[in-house]
Amino acid sequence: MLLVGQQPAASGGDVLVTDGRAQHALLMERAPRALEVTAVPGTAFYGDGGGHPSRIFTRHQGERVSIRLRQDALAAFSPLLTPHLPHLRTAIEALQQRVTLDASQGYLIDNSRWLHARTGFSGDRVCLRALGDPRTPIPPGFPSQIHCPAP
Question: Could you list the pLDDT tens digit for every one of the 151 residues in the chain?
Fold first, then answer.
């Protein structure tokens, strides 16, 4: 995903990014059960009525892991996962980086590795976003620090 700021907000609107690999490692160290549950299929649901069941961490062949997480009104979590969400959010907050974009500044991230969000803002913030696939395929996510064969 590419996001470029065309016009910054009068106040707020900072970008918040979290490296999924660092989050995975922190959860493995501090809350291994939470990490295990976040990889269970169907524990997260993203979208409205036409959305789809998902999970937060997905294991891929080649011992790679990808991350996907929404925390807005279009996300719902199973009762199995709900007790572990505080661990997940604590890890996000511990690793989160804040970036202030001026006009014509932006960032390019791999959506399967990085979490991204923004702070609240006031004023007319204008950003341009582009989604796409790399011309040369890259493996999804990031290498896992633990052995985790694909299910």
Answer: 999 999 999 999 999 999 999 999 999 999 999 999 999 999 999 998 778 999 999 999 888 999 999 999 999 999 999 999 999 999 999 999 999 999 999 999 999 999 999 999 999 999 999 999 889 988 889 998 765 444 4
Q: What is the CATH number of the domain that holds 135?
A: 3.60.130.10
114 pairs with which residues across the strands?
19
Residue 119 domain-assigned?
yes
- Among residues 52, 43, 46, 111, which one has the least CA distance to residue 74? 46
Residue 111, domain extent: 2-143
- What's the structural domain count of the chain? 1
Return the residue matching tokens 């900072």.
14
Neighbour order of strands in the sheet with 64-67: 57-60, 64-67, 142-143
